[in-house]
Every structure is written in C-alpha cells, then in structure tokens.
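Here is a typical protein record:
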Amino acid sequence: MSEQGTPSDLDGKSFRKMVFTRFALAFIALGFMFFLPAWTFNYWQAWVYMLILFIPMSVLIRYLYKHDPALLERRMRMKERQKTQKLIIALSFLFFLPAFVIPGFDVRLGWSNVPFMVVVIADIVVILGYLMFALVLKTNSYASRVVEVEKGQKVITTGPYAMVRHPMYLASLILYGFSPLALGSYWAMIPVVLLVPLIVARIKGEEKELLENLEGYKEYVMKTKYRLVPGVW
C-alpha cells in the first residue's frame, strides 16, 4: 500500500475487482458447502446464516475500502512466509471445511434436531463474534491475515487488545464455534473442537514472531497476561 492507501502493485480498479471477486467467491463457496450436501435450497438455517454473515461483511468491506484500504489489502493476503504457519493453515482446512459441509448432510439425513431457539441464539452469538472481529480491525490497522511484522508497526494495547493479546482469534473462535449450531447441526461441532489445537499452535508461532521483531511486544506480554481467553489462557 502507498501512503494514500492505494495498493502499490494494483491500480484502484484492479483492487476493487479483487475485493469483489473474493467476496463473491466466498458467497458461492459457502452456498455450495451448505446446499449441495443438503440437496435442497429449503434450508432456512443456512439462508439466515449467510445473511447474518455477508451483510455485515459487505458493510465492513465498504468501510475499510473507504477509510482504511491498506488494512483491507492486508486482509486480502493469503500466502504465509513461514513453513510452520503454512502447515497449520493446510491442516486447518481439514477441520474448517467439514464444519461447514457436515450441517448440510445433517439436515438432509436428520442426524440432529437442534431446537429453533438454539439456532437463533447461535445466530446472535455469530453476529457478536463478527462485531468483535470488526472492532479488532478498527482498533488494529496492522491486523494482517498472515503472520508478519511490517515496517512501522506498533503494539496495540487498547480496546480488545487490553483484554487478550489475540482478540482476532477469540472473535474467530466465537464465530466459528457457534456456526454449526446456527446451521442446525450438533455433529459439526466435532471438527470445530479439533480446530482449537491448531489455533493455539498458530498463536504460539505468531507470538514468537512478534516477540522477536515487534518493538514493545515483550512489555505488552508482561502487562496483558492472557493470549486468547481471559482467565484461561
């Protein structure tokens, strides 16, 4: 990104196209993962879930494009530099994908019977998780998708970072942790639970990078005790 927030290697039109394409592909991919296993579009839990996820996402993307395009460009990065992090990301798909594919089969074959109010409560928690995710991005303009420390990056200690050192992962854990229930499946909770050790491993690797390369992070670690969940870890 340049100082004005325009991608240094992309013109404005190309950047807009990349953002729109990523958004559209994410929508289509989730649609396939939900409705193809269910073999029906009569899957109200999936429709509600996609609405509560993609409407806030579109608002957030529009906000970032206007007010912090540099952060939006960071969120577009996908390529990890460290071999360990590449492995963690690859392994995470083994649990991430089933968590979104199983609910369709569950609804189709009647494995679970998640009550309506449980689905509604889960939807509310998913929304709260995404709002926390948005708050993290608003607080930390260097919240890249990949593990890296950029030139000029500073330690963020305010907002959700005053509570835990990795609020982005906490928000993601809340969002993904309640997604199976929002989609009407108990069985899909299994791959979500199995994803937790990988999140822990990713956080440990990221902390090593931050301790070695981000000035002031050691002092922040001493001040903010918990990494992910207050009072737990």
